Structures are given as structure tokens and as C-alpha cells.
Amino acid sequence: MEAIMEYLRDLNIASISLRIILSILLGGILGLERGIKNRPAGLRTYILVCLGSALVMMTNQYVCITYQTGDPVRLGAQVISGIGFLGAGTIVLTGRNKITGITTAAGLWTAACSGLAIGIGFYEGAVLGSLGIAFTVSGLLRFDIWIRKKSRYLDLYIEYNAEQGSFSGFLQYAREHELEVSNIRVNKGFSVYERNGKPGTLSYTVTVSSQIHRTHSEILEVLAHEKGIQFIEEL
């Protein structure tokens, strides 16, 4: 068994074929969950990232063996830092100051790390690491949602009618109902005055916490009754 593993860690037709197939399989496993959820980077993107990383490491190994020169992990280091540009492209800040795509970006980076492990012949680490990544992304999703729901803090997007009341009135209303409001951010896409000169709609994102035990839906229910609020949702 040890002799077989040593053979597969060397650079030959059998090991190259195994590494390419393994990178496609593991990259596909990592990208499947993202693809099902229709994220910006899905099945094919993850496969390409994992396969490309594996090819980079095999190329680095080939250069070191053939020309007896160079650092065997130099190209891999460039992949780890360079994959950031692809991950950054999946992170989006929506008009409501909601950040999406961070998990996808992190998944792409870890898929690249798996590809590097495959490319250098570290099969055990690549397989176990990829299974751990897949469990984190898929298996811990419900636990992550549960933690968020149990949090005392929630981020809210609020559209407020400036004609019906002032935002300072909203803050007073929140204090009266034992709610703390912090991290107030005004969305620049909305203006206090519309073209006809009448007060228009203000858009805010705020962080709210309750001084007494309430669920997130109960907090939303309390705030929804404040006059002037046209729309409110949890981010």
C-alpha cells in the first residue's frame, strides 16, 4: 500500500489522471450546494478553480523534477493570494446594505486549497479537507440560521415616510418599547424631498436589540406599528 501511494505521489500518467479526476470530483462536491442555491459561482466554477489549482501544483512539481530548480510551492503560493480577485467578484453589497456572496468567496478559496493539495499528491488531506468544507457549507447551514435567530441583535432595513413623522420619533418609539437602536446608516439612494418639494421617503439600515426577551418576528411586529414606517425587513 505504501509503495502504491509513493507511486501516486510521483508525477506520472497514473498520478496525473488521478489528480485531475479527483479535483473534478471534489470541486464538484464543493460547488454543488452553491449551484443548487443559484449563487454567482456554482458547480462549474468550483470545478474549474479546483482543477486549475491542481494543474498549477503539478506544473510546479514538473518544473522542479525536470529542471532541478525552483521552489516546489512557489506557484501554489500565488494561487492562494491570486484567487482573491475571483472571490471578491462574488461579494455584492445590495442597495439595502446587505452583503451577499461571502460564503461563496470563502468556498472558492478553500476549493483552490483543495486543488493545491491534490496537485501535489496530498490525497488524504485533499479528501478529508474537502469533506470538512462540504460539511461546513451544507451541514452547518441550519445551525448557523438557528444561531442568527437566537441572537439579541438584528439588522433591519427601514423605509420611512418623512411626511408622516420624523426618524427621531422612531427612535423615541423604540426606546419606549425597550428597544435599542444603533449603527444607523442612511442610504444615499433616497432623498428627504421629492421633486415636487414634498417630504419623501428615507431609507435606513439599523441594528436593533431588545432589552427584554423577544423573538426577531416579535421585534419586527412592534416596530411595524410605528407611524411613518412604510416598509421594514430583517437583513
How many structural domains can be distinguished in the coordinates? 2
Give the % helix.
55-70%
Arrangement of strands in the largest sheet: 4-5-3-6
**What is the overall pLDDT average?**
83
| Terminal CA distance | 53 Å
**SS element count, helices:** 10
The main β sheet shows up as:
4 strands, antiparallel
SSE string, helices as H and strands as E: HHHHHEEHHHEHEEHE
Strand content: 15-25%
Q: What structural category do the secondary elements indicate? A: alpha+beta
How does this structure look, described?
This protein has 235 residues and is α+β, with helices and mostly antiparallel strands. The protein folds into two domains: 2-147, no CATH class; 152-234, Ribosomal protein S6/Translation elongation factor EF1B (Alpha-Beta Plaits). Helix content is 58%, strand content 16%. The protein is built from ten helices and six strands, in the order H-H-H-H-H-E-E-H-H-H-E-H-E-E-H-E. The protein has helices at 2-9, 13-36, 43-67, 74-82, 84-88, 102-120, 123-139, 141-150, 167-176, 216-224, and strands at residues 92-93, 99-100, 153-161, 179-186, 201-210, 229-234. Strands 4-5-3-6 form a four-stranded antiparallel β-sheet, covered by helices on one side. Strands 1-2 form a two-stranded antiparallel ribbon. Strand 1 and strand 2 (99-100) form a beta hairpin. Helix 2 (13-36) packs antiparallel against helix 3 (43-67), helix 2 (13-36) packs antiparallel against helix 6 (102-120) and helix 3 packs parallel to helix 6 (102-120). The longest helix is centred in the first third of the chain and has 25 residues, at 43-67. The N and C termini lie far apart (53 Å).
